[in-house]
Amino acid sequence: MIATPKPLSPLCLAVLVVTGCGKYADDLFCSSAGCAWGDGEWQRVAALANPGDPPGDRSNMYWNIDAAQTLGREFFFDTGFSGNATQKDAINRTSPPARAAVGQPIGISCATCHDLTHAGVDTTSSPGYVSVGAGWTDVNALAVVNSAYRQVVFWNGRADSLWALNVVVSESATTMNGNRLALAHRIFDVYHDEYQRAFPEWPLATEIGTDATRFPASGKPGVPAWDMMAGPDKDVINRILVNWAKAIAAYEYKLISVDSDFDRYVSAGPDSNLISGAAIRGARLFVGKASCSTCHAGSQLTDELFHDIGIPQTGVAVPTTADCPATQPSTNAPSADCDCVSETAVKCAPWGAYDGLRRLRNSTMGSAIRNRWRRTGDPLDPNNHWSDDETDTSRQSYVDMPLVDTLQGAWRTPSLRNVGLTAPYMHDGRYTTLNDVLWHYNTAGASAGPEQVGALAPEIKPLLLTDQEMADIVAFLGTLNGRPKFPDWTTAPPPR
Q1: Tens digit of pLDDT for each residue in 101-130?
Q2: Whole-angstrom Cα distance, residue 487 to residue 329?
Q3: What is the pTM of this model?
Q4: Which domains, from first to last, does the chain contain?
């Protein structure tokens, strides 16, 4: 614990103005702006505040189109795109009970597992450590508020755009477990006119006609009803699925959080008292002794990278390395419609970013930048790729990141904006409070659990913080909850 400072001596008081009495005197008699801050300290704190607008998504030409954002909002809250319960986990084991009995409708939407009153994290799954949909996932749902700032998504970085994430989630057996044929029929039947206003380049009257019954009612890849369809008909349905995903991503560009108490404090200047003294001390520790800003950097308080911080793979439905196969044949050989790099790699979910990057590099669906999810087999077809800008290389460095062993056990650095609203913490919901999180870092995860995946990042080492210092950092984190930039778009479902 921090000791109570001793009173100033009479001698020190007498000579204080002339000679000073160390930093103690600075803190007591500081009057000029920022005089109590060390060299560069205020600049490092100020760099964490007041983010600008997120960059637009060049792979999604609809990201700032009002009609697409409005339609995406309706899609985000519509339970009609989900399928039936599988009660399977991330590695296809039988899971505990999910949201319904096996084979029964789960009736969930994006909003079910992304509570916008809690910055878009999952507050509904029980016990709350990982998210539950049609089955049990192996991670907890990341916040969708401010997700427009992310260049790659998911805890393991396995997709490189918001719309690619939405495509994956729509048919995943652990999340929504929908299917693209049923999705296309629902859009045709329920959202026909709104869809056409949002996507005039893709007229349903031309692609589907006036009657959609020629398409099977339900199906996705791996299901005979889909697999037996003609190629041009698959292209039509795939385009509708992609547009559904891009509309939701466009809506997510409205889910921006700004103007936190910390942002207001920095705007007012270092002499401001808009946050508590404890929070100010915590901010100084954050950029100083505790070194939190090494990874939680910039105005989104994340370096957008992946680190092994020693979080064990524990909890219901969370796979461990013992569940990973010892060998696995490569299925990633280059082919006529995939420019994949051939890699022999074991699929192992606990490896985090190592597994996610492998999946991104070799996915037929998860990459907007590498353009692997192609509409046709003709590489000269200008409409061959689902990305709306084939020259976009903004996230190329992630896709090309080498598969090195240090990525095993590494997970993304989440943004700390709204962190007071987004419990539980860490990729598998290991910790329920921010105090727990600070304990983990202060002890370098010494007693976190039985399994250490990979090698700890060099930044993870004992911090020697006192109880008071940890409490101060938690006080600072509590000032990061923001206010919606677009209030009418955040928490309420649309009128439909």
Answers
A1: 999 999 999 999 999 999 999 999 878 899
A2: 50
A3: 0.88
A4: 9-35 (no CATH), 66-252 (1.10.760.10)
